[in-house]
Amino acid sequence: MKLLLLAVLLRLGGEPSRCRAQAASHTFDSAIRHFTIVSDSVYVATEQTLYRLSRTLVPLESLTQRGVLESRESPWESPFYRVSETHRQNKTFTVNLLVPFVRNRSLITCGVTDCGYCEVRDLTNISSLLHSENFNVGSLRHHSQSVGFLMDVEQMPSRPDTYLLTATQQDGNRTAEVRCFTQTKAVTMHNTNRNQEGGIFAYTELNSAIKRDGTVEFVDGFQIDSTVYLLSNLAAPRTVRLLWLESREGPRQTLKSLRGATLRLSAGEDGSRLLASAVIPDGPPVLWAGVFGANDSDTRLAVFDISPVQTGPTDQDLDFYSVKKDTSKSEPALLTPRAVLFRRSSMTSVLALRQRSWLVFFIGTGDGLLIKLAVDKAFQSVCPRVLYKANDDRQVFPKMHLDQVDGKHVYVVLGNQMKHLPVSQCQNYTSLQACWAAQDPFCGWCGSAKRCTFEDECSDPVWLSVGDDASQQQMVSHRVARGSSGEITLSVQTHVSVGQPAALTNFACQFSTVTDELCDRTGPAPQFPQCTCVLKSRTLPEEGLDVTVKIRLGSETLTENLKLANCSEISGPATFALCRRCIAAGCGWSSNACSWANAGAVNDSVCHVSESQLDFSKPEISSITPSVLSFLGRNGAVLRGRNLGAVTRVRIQAELDCSAKESPVWNNTGTKLMFRIPSGDKGVVKVCVVLPDGSCLGNATVTYRSLPSCYNITPASTWTSGMRKMKVRGSFLEFVEGIVHDHDPHTVREPTHNGSEVLYYDTPPAENAQGGFSSTMSLKVVNTSVSCPTEITYHPDPHFTSFTSTRTGDDLRVTIQKMADKLNMTKDELRVWGLQGDAQHLCHMETLESSGGTDFFTCEIKDKPNVQIEFLMIKYGGRTVTLEPPSNLSPLMLLALLPIPCIIVAGVVIYRSKQRKLTAQMNRRIEDLELDIRNDIRQGFVDLQTERADLMENVGAIPFLDYKHFASRIFFPEGGALMTSCIRDIGQDVVKVRPDECCQALSKLIREQHFLTCMVHTLEEQKSFTIKDKCAVASLLTVALHSDLCYLTQVMEELLQALLLQAGASQPKLLLRRTESVVEKLLTNWMSVCLYGFLRESVGQQLFLLVSALTQQIAKGPVDSVTEKALYTLSEDWLLWQAQDFTSLKLKVHFAVGSDGEVSDPLEVSALSCDTVEQLKDKILSTFRAKFGFCYSAALRDVRIEYEKSGSFVPLEEVDGSSEVIGDVTMLNTLKHYEVPDGASIKVLSKKTHPPVSPQGSLKDDRDFSVKYFHLIDPDVDEDQRKNPGRKKLKLKEVHLTKLLSTKVAVHSFVENLFRSMWSTPHGKAPHAVKFFFDFLDAQADSMKISDPDVLHIWKTNSLPLRFWVNILKNPQFVFDVEKTPHLDGCLSVIAQAFMDSFSLSDTQLGKHAPTNKLLYAKDIPKFKQEVKSYYRQVREQPAISSSDFRGFLLEESKKHENEFNECAALKELYKFLQRYFPEVQQKLQQNGAPAELKEQLQHVKSLFDGLKSCSWD
Fold this sequence. Notes:
Elements: H1 2-21, E1 24-27, E2 32-38, E3 41-46, E4 49-54, E5 59-64, E6 66-69, E7 80-82, E8 91-92, E9 94-101, E10 106-112, E11 116-122, E12 125-133, E13 147-156, E14 159-167, H2 175-179, E15 187-191, E16 216-224, E17 227-234, E18 239-246, H3 251-256, E19 259-263, E20 273-280, E21 287-295, E22 298-305, E23 333-335, E24 339-344, E25 347-355, E26 358-365, E27 369-375, E28 385-389, E29 401-402, E30 409-414, E31 417-422, H4 432-437, E32 444-446, E33 451-453, E34 463-466, E35 476-482, E36 488-494, E37 496-498, E38 508-512, E39 530-534, E40 545-553, E41 556-564, H5 576-584, E42 588-590, E43 593-595, E44 620-625, E45 628-630, E46 634-642, E47 649-654, E48 661-666, E49 672-677, E50 683-690, E51 696-705, E52 709-714, E53 717-719, E54 725-731, E55 738-741, E56 744-749, E57 753-754, E58 758-762, E59 773-781, E60 784-795, E61 800-808, E62 811-819, E63 831-836, E64 839-851, E65 854-861, E66 871-876, E67 879-883, H6 891-897, H7 900-946, H8 963-971, H9 977-982, H10 997-1006, H11 1009-1021, H12 1027-1040, H13 1045-1063, ...
Parallel strand pairs: 19-23, 45-51, 53-60, 68-75, 74-76
Antiparallel strand pairs: 1-31, 2-3, 3-4, 4-5, 6-7, 6-8, 9-10, 10-11, 11-12, 13-14, 14-15, 16-17, 17-18, 18-19, 20-21, 21-22, 22-24, 25-26, 26-27, 27-28, 29-30, 30-31, 32-33, 32-34, 34-37, 35-36, 36-39, 38-40, 40-41, 42-43, 44-46, 46-49, 47-48, 47-50, 48-49, 50-51, 52-54, 54-58, 55-56, 55-59, ...
Helix pairs in contact: 7-19, 10-27, 10-29, 11-28, 12-14, 12-27, 13-14, 15-19, 21-22, 22-23
């Protein structure tokens, strides 16, 4: 209710200003998938939210699509329910169909959770769910070319039934359908209410559908009267198809009424795709507009008559069928366009309207333009206009909708933004002439209101708008003709239309001249839109005749001043200027000469064919710099060419400009001139040069692009003297002309280098600045500034203190000391010279190190054995400083030092007098320290003996990653582009794509085992083939051959045999210990693939419980908020041994309910007196989640807490005015600081509903958090001792080592369970992969005559525990959707070490100096070793797995994860390595006696790849 009330208030308060602006906009949380309009409401589905907005885009309601899908045996029985933004989710309801059912006041949303899912919601309250069902309606993919809409079928007279028709993309990929036990047909009809047979969403009749065997993408669909129209693209061959269905008798009959046609732009044209579609309203005939394009660079808008063909047989289409496919059917009818209206690059969408006799098209483009194109009834267009221009290149959404309330706005989507844009800006035109010149059918002049308006806004029936003919460029035109009897006739015509022509009763014309009466009274009477004057005189004066014509149109009077001339006397060379003079006089132009209007063309377009006849050489344009620029233009462009001396102007003519723009020229040398390129709209424009006679010659183009933008600047700081080199990242940065900082707006810095995505410049100085300050940088483009979101901080210049030099052979090493600062200066920013007399010696920078508040730069002066440095000259930015060496003591200094011995003697006397007092004081301090140490030791002993494993084992659903996420992390642990390219569509459903010819050939080649093993051996023999390359090749092979794991296993066996023979004879115990070959990484991948099922079923739960237990145990004791060190840990490196004393607290936590001060019942939360405010918040939210099973409604950073003290509530903040400050470091406030006692009441409030008086963001967002603040580990500052001498108690790490042991005791059961799950044999059988590979190793040992059992034990240990299990144990984020903190990583490393020690054959003797991670599990290792030996024995004694069974297992694994990898991308990456070492591979094949067919196949692959001109990896 609050949201609705707020929306109403916003509408009441915001509508007037919104109307004045005539445009509205709203930005959503993510990209818009679908939107639809119903009267005054807009419905939008994004990736994760469903919205309802007002027609002016004021948000009214929103509904999250995030939720939880419970796992059931059948996907159709799995319930889906929504969860809050802060709650963990496992699925998102992705909307593929968004259809309003206005008659039922409902909104139908269908799409995908895991399988098909549909909901019906209330149109006026989308939070109200009317019906939901797991049912497949439409596509099962997250992204597909499919459509859906409601259609009416009249099964009974005057009582139509409504169905949901879906036309779904078909391409042969049935993965999702198999998983969901369904089958999707090309065209189906679904019920829309429960009263229909089968119920809502059910198929109308069993097996009643239109099918398509090949690939089809549906672009649009709609119903007009009783006919349904479907438009689609077929793939092979590329064809655009139109289908008609007649909806008159019932669903089955409707689908069987199928007829079709093919759409082509011309009879011989083929290969275009349909990109966008729009119906032209108010037929018949049924006119339709479509955007066609074979590629993005050339798209065309065409109009077709798609009125249905009512003759001929039905269901006889060649490509679609409802009953049975008949290949003998004839080709469908061919439709060609009535007209091709517009041609431009990257058109993406179209909307069509009728306005009187005009058709108006709104066209969206791929670079963010909305273009309006008006077309007359002869399909001739006026000049197109740009209604909206995005600053960037966001593509306009394929669908646009008209505002159904006023019909004067369109809804346009660009990415995650929706705009409500006016169709016209009539109010911008302030005169009748300007209103008409806009050539906008929506706009007309309202005489009574004296302004340009929409027709419905004008009460005057004489509403004057543009005429019906697009070719007319003037509101009033005139023609001068001579009759056969010699009379001269002046005809004047108005090219306007009138709102109500019958109301125009006073149309009249008055012709006058300064001399005699002009017209013969016997001439015809005026008749709208034309007046005629037959001149009394049959001749015209030689100097011409000035005529004034006044035309009355309703309350408006038009005045035209004409100059009539004798057409036959306008003569001379046939130049452009002469032609324009002829046409302007009302005459005609014919055969390059002027004639009377009745004997020649009267349109000035005929003059463009006449070239200059002046005595000039024809100018030629060779280049324009820049030729690509932002749509703001360029001030100083350079045009080069030949014969440019007579050029006076440069003309820029764009297809989207209604008139050409001209710029004057300067600095014209005849071969080069300068001019200004004006602003324009995105796209290509034509450029020519204008001569004195007005003709325009030459042919060049300029391309307008988007504005520059920036998103990152490095480094983030500079010194006050300026000239630091900055790197800016963004887009279209090549258009930047300068950089301006807000602290010095008059200084413009030119880029030192700028490309499309990277720009470099030097910062301006800020010499007068005191201390540090932030400056905002802007990009200067022409006369506009584009702001960058990142601020640059100015700090004082670096301070170099001294230097030292050391001789190293013939080189001199120089070390420069600089005071540490916040500039983060790099060694590359310094240039250093050593000075000796007048000689300068360059010092080459080597290293940069920091220690103790000082930065040390090291450089070397090379090959100068005799140089002695007197000074250093250091240059950074634009500044140069001279540094002197440390000076020696002078005689005067020695004299000054003479009193020092006397002072020392006096000091000794004073020291002796105070020694006794200090000794007594020291003895008391030592006694206190001994007492503290005793207490710490006793407390550690008590904790160890009373430690209870009370960790929570119920952790809810385990967030397993799916297989492709798991595999991507194992195969490519470093991530990057290689991972994303090879793992297909991570997080989305996959689409099977047929690989191109290159990939098919290479795939076939690597399936030749002889070639593949030969290639691997050859690559490994190359010195430049690094370990990183070996791992990449192994993972690429795993991806490329994942669909054939049987063959991959054979290859791995052969490579392993070669490795065993090569390395096993000399040092067999070191085999497989590291990943130093392709096959070793291949083995890691193979184990991961084959053991994924065992990992999820048997080990995953135990691993997740261990991770959860460690996290809980760490949180039981003090945790330093800054360093994350904790009192309870397994790793000595992460032990918080400096912790001060603390006490446990039980707090009563109340949660604010509503906004009236009400609170919930108390929730008991355990905390520590040393907890910070943020740590307490985290414990409160964790306790809430554990208590109620779901998350609190607000996130941690949106929560604030208050402590009840003396009847009032005190806000608790991380830092406030009472915080303790030591030096420059601030201590975070704790509960002890606020004196919060045991049993205190804490109130939790949301910052959104209860905003704090002084808002404070998260301190951890500060990059210098660890420097500015401290918590439990005191800063190393002397001032602390002086202010609080009792604060620093002596703390010894060794005293707290018992905490490691108590933590080990707490989690030990989880560790044992995990280890035993890893070496378990469910049902007495090891996993297939383990048994197979261990048997393989046994067989290899036998063949190599290896009798030492320790060797086999080591091989197996290196293959399975070391290569797979330890990787999983140390990286739980590979398996689960969890975050691994550095502290957790340290604890897991200790456990992983214990795990590997369990497989060791040696008995290590541990002493008091042994590492603690070894000592922790020293007593457990012998027991684990026995279990490991038993495990190896069980695997060895288990019956061997048959080849057929193991092959079946591999085939099942391949099939299970089919199409989850982009094999073609992997093959292309693999070819890069083959290409790099192609001669060596070819030579190796020759040496190994490879068959000729294999070498020919290799050469064929190379030829195919070499033939690619622009491959993806280039």
